[in-house]
Amino acid sequence: MQAQPLLISETRVRFGLAPGEILKLTSPKASNMSSTQLQDTADKLAVVETLYRFAAGIDLRDEVLLASAFTEDAISDFRPAAAKAGFEYPVLQGRQTIVAALSGSLAGIDTTHSVNNPRVSIAGDQAQVDALVEAQHVPQNDHSRHYLMKNRYDVKLVRAGDAWLIQSVTVDNVWRTGDLGVLSGV
Fold this sequence. Notes:
Strand content: 35-45%
Low-confidence stretches: 1-9
InterPro entries: NTF2-like_dom_sf (IPR032710), SnoaL-like (IPR037401)
Largest sheet: 6 strands, mixed
Domain SnoaL-like: 40-169
Strand order of the largest sheet: 2-1-6-5-4-3
Distance between the termini: 40 Å
Number of strands: 6
CATH class: Alpha Beta
CATH topology: Nuclear Transport Factor 2, Chain: A
Pfam family, one: SnoaL_4
Order of helices and strands: HHHEHEHEEEE
Shape: globular
Number of domains: 1
Mean pLDDT: 89
CATH architecture: Roll
Protein name: Septum formation inhibitor-activating ATPase MinD
């Protein structure tokens, strides 16, 4: 049976939190959590952290950080988003292929990726995340132009020791605005 995501409102009720009150894992209220609940919370944070590494690796042009988010045989499928934007992009297979393709295709573009509303489900050593990611693209040589995308990421991850790694990510576009020419050559 797959674990269901715990909503913030459910967390507040379960741990007796007032609106705006934060549950710290060292607080007396957290001491009421079972070791399983603490591990589930830590795993969910680690899963989302993997998505943050992915986004930051792209934005910072840090190939090591970007690679740290993927399994060796990972798959990245940007085709649904690309099709809605009117261009083709191949399915990328393998960590090194993904890192090389993203680093190369975005070399002349400054990007910012903001990960929002991640919903995490964990079952054993496998996890699934559904998140919205806002991706801003600006040519390095002309910051007056931009292409902004709001994408839905469907991410499957596996536990690898103490870390979670992306096994597959499928990106679909919710909306987009700006100059598509910014992505020419991607």
